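User: Reviewer 2 asked us to show a designed sequence for the structure in our supplementary figure. I'm pasting the structure tokens here. Could you produce the per-position amino acids so we can include them in the response letter?
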């Protein structure tokens, strides 16, 4: 039975979504093409009807995951983002969580295409977290961006460190609790200095 173009596009999107989840759970090298296609409900042979290589799928799946993270962040102020991101729920929900926290370590060892995609995804997330303001001067805009970069890096690092510990390790929770508290305190201090610099409610 011939597959329509629309169905082929749906199948491709489903494969990409499945790959994005599995890559976040296991890393790029932790799942092969055959297993990935089986998880998506297709045969191994069908893979090359959609993608030239696993590397192409890795790049597309990463871009998709990064876009989802930015979309979920839209409308959150920085404090809300930190409360949700630096949490046990996010730490344990690797497959449904942020691609940056799940795959940054892997991406650093991948091709320029994947690194470029990560840079674009990180930039989009920074943009989503920093509310635009025509009233801020260049210096204040740079200061606001600096604060958002620091917040994101601290948040991602906290989740990565916590995940490196055993699930039942007290240290896994301690890292999250300490970092969340410190990031929120830093945001509160920064917001008092620059009331319009961060987020829709900062």
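Assistant: Here is a per-position design you can include in the supplement:
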């Amino acid at each position: 039975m011939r597959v329509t173009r629309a169905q082929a596009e749906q199948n491709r999107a489903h494969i990409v979504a499945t790959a994005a989840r599995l890559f976040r759970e296991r890393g790029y090298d932790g799942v092969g093409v055959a297993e990935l296609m089986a998880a998506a409900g297709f045969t191994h042979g069908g893979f090359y009807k959609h993608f030239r290589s696993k590397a192409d799928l890795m790049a597309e799946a990463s871009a998709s995951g990064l876009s989802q993270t930015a979309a979920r962040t839209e409308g959150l102020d920085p404090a809300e983002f930190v409360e949700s991101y630096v949490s046990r729920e996010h730490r344990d929900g690797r497959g449904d969580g942020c691609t940056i926290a799940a795959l940054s370590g892997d991406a650093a060892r991948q091709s320029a295409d994947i690194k470029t995609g990560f840079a674009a995804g990180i930039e989009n997330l920074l943009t989503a977290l920093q509310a635009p303001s025509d009233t801020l001067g260049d210096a204040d805009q740079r200061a606001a961006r600096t604060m958002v970069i620091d917040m994101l890096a601290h948040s991602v690092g906290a989740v990565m460190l916590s995940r490196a510990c055993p699930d039942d390790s007290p240290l896994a929770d301690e890292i999250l609790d300490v970092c969340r508290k410190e990031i929120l305190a830093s945001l509160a201090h920064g917001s008092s200095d620059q009331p319009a610099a961060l987020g829709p409610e900062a």
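For the response letter, you might also mention the following. The chain has nine helices and no strands. Residues 5-193 form a domain with the Tetracycline Repressor; domain 2 fold (CATH 1.10.357.10).
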